[in-house]
Design a protein that fits this description.
alpha/beta; 15% strand
Amino acid sequence: MSEMTRHEKALAILNKGTVIPATTLALDDDRKFDEAHQRLLTRYYLEAGSGGVATAVHSTQFEIRLPQYNLFETVISTVSDEISRYEAETGKVIVKVCGVCGPAEQAVREAEMAKKYGFDAVLLSPGGLNHLPEEEMLARTKAVAAVMPVIGFYLQTAVGGRVFTYDYWAQLAEIDNVVAIKCASFNRYTTQDVVRAVTLSSRADKIALYTGNDDNIVVDLLTKYRYEVDGKMYENHFRGGLLGHWSIWTANVVKMFAMLKDAKASDDLLTLAAQVTDCNSAFFDTAHNFHGCIAGMHEVLRRQGLITSIACLNPEESLSPGQAEEIDRVYKMYPHLNDDAFVKEFLARHEAR
């Protein structure tokens, strides 16, 4: 048997399940791209033990695509290059995920650019396309899958997503080169639709389920789903996570993920699940319908010294009233969840270079 290519190894890691933080965007106080801190942030995720990194996604700010910023290619090339440097230094393979969005023509164009820069899969966002029928959304997925392996995406309605039918997910699961699905619907009922559709599809073993449900991370990773059809039992589970929440406190996320992979539900783990969800509420600003979700992640990274500013490209995106105090609260209430000690050592090591 011939040796696997780097890309094949990356897809095997994705299929098995791993930690994939959805990276934020490093800007300075003038809202200019900060390449040095973007590289530092990427290296942080890698040295924290992440198996993959996703960029050009919601937490990286969709505005990077707007002509007045024109940052899409700059960001993905920077992140990919930093991952490649790490791979060359360590011999490890990291799953490179690039977000793509927009109508089919734009999504295909972005997928082609992701392929150019060595990404392994694209996370195909449905955002902004709520006016399209499901048939057109499926055709769009097929068009992108002809260029790159696709991670399907159930995006919550609060940030521009829509509710899809069960049949949509059943048909999407049958598309060749769909290699994973990120479920971030923040809804127990629609999450069941995705899991059942994939589990009962002919490609169930080829599609890895990834939780993007930041409100239910631990329980998603602990739960085994079972469906009986005509006397036969079908089973599935979330194999990994691709989350904005995991762009912060990442070193402890990696430890938690390793513990959860083989764990059975217990009182302690269900307590952990509630604590993680409480933290997410502060970071993602659920009190204000997620208005400050990106700024909240930036604030934690700024406090740790990984970025210098919480500015977003859109000046309207900022911390909500009382959100900083909520972050203070969860920091004090759950000190065992942060990775401040790791970050302090990480920064000292890189400053010494």
